[in-house]
Amino acid sequence: MLRIGITGGIGSGKSVVARLFATLGVPVYDSDSRAKWVMATDLVLREQLQAAFGVEAYDGDGQLNRPYLAKVAFHDAAQLARLNALVHPRVGADFAAWTAAQQAAGYAYILKEAALLYESGAYRTLDGIITVFAPADVRAARVLRRDAHRTAADVQAIMGKQLSEEEKLARADYVVYNDDSQLVLPQVLALDAGFRMGNK
Ligand code: ADP
């Protein structure tokens, strides 16, 4: 079974493109929402986070205290590295278990969707990477339309932490152009046909 990553800068349309693959019956691992789920439900991780950041990391109902963690870790590089060092192995274990289940179910390939596949090093554990491309100005406009709570400055700050589109394009094994230069669905169908035949 092939394990293919799908990435792209914020607003590139990687969630939309991943959903097209999902409608073709391809299992898609959404790293962002799975990481949130693991942090909410993994009891080993809960103990580790409380030992590292204090019992306040979870509230009285056992819910992850996201505002607290954001306050202690998101603006401090050393604390953020500590948080990631605890969370990443548990999410990695979740991905491994999920992948094994898809393999047992007989799928030809799966997709792992993540904004930071290159930046996190996760690309090394995958058989190939699709980059969804759209230029920065188009991405910024889409995100401002999608996310009422984000300002143009927020979007620029997020983009500043991601590899440039040019760099991602240079490193990609496959590209889906979502910049209105060509139709998206035929690109997805062509990739899907190749992966089903086991082509890397
Ligand atoms: P990402 O997951 O890469 O941040 P999304 O898939 O959420 O991006 O797409 C960002 C926003 O742009 C969404 O609201 C989506 O519906 C919209 N969008 C995506 N592709 C296009 C497109 N080709 N034309 C217009 N809007 C698009």
Summarize the helices and strands and which ones pair or pack:
Layout: E1 2-7, H1 14-23, E2 28-30, H2 31-41, H3 43-53, H4 66-73, H5 77-104, E3 109-113, E4 128-133, H6 136-146, H7 152-160, H8 165-171, E5 174-177, H9 184-196
Parallel strand pairs: 1-3, 1-4, 2-3, 4-5
Features:
5-stranded parallel sheet, 200 residues, binds adenosine-5'-diphosphate, globular, alpha/beta, 2 domains, Rossmann fold
Assign an overall shape. globular
Low-confidence stretches: none
CATH class of the largest domain: Alpha Beta
Helicity range:
40-55%
Number of domains: 2
In this structure, how is the largest beta sheet organized? 5 strands, parallel
What structural class is derived from the secondary structure elements?
A: alpha/beta
Distance between the termini: 11 Å
- State the helix count: 9
The total beta strand count reads 5
Mean pLDDT: 94
Describe this entry's structure for a reader.
With 200 residues, the chain is an alpha/beta fold. The chain has two domains: 1-27 and 107-194, P-loop containing nucleotide triphosphate hydrolases (Rossmann fold), CATH 3.40.50; 32-89. Helix content is 54%, strand content 12%. It is built from nine helices and five strands, in the order βαβααααββαααβα. It has a five-stranded parallel sheet with strand order 2-3-1-4-5, with helices on both faces. The N and C termini lie close together (11 Å). The site of adenosine-5'-diphosphate (ADP) has 11 residues, from helix 1 and helix 6. Residues 8, 10-16, 142, 146, 178 line the site of adenosine-5'-diphosphate (ADP).
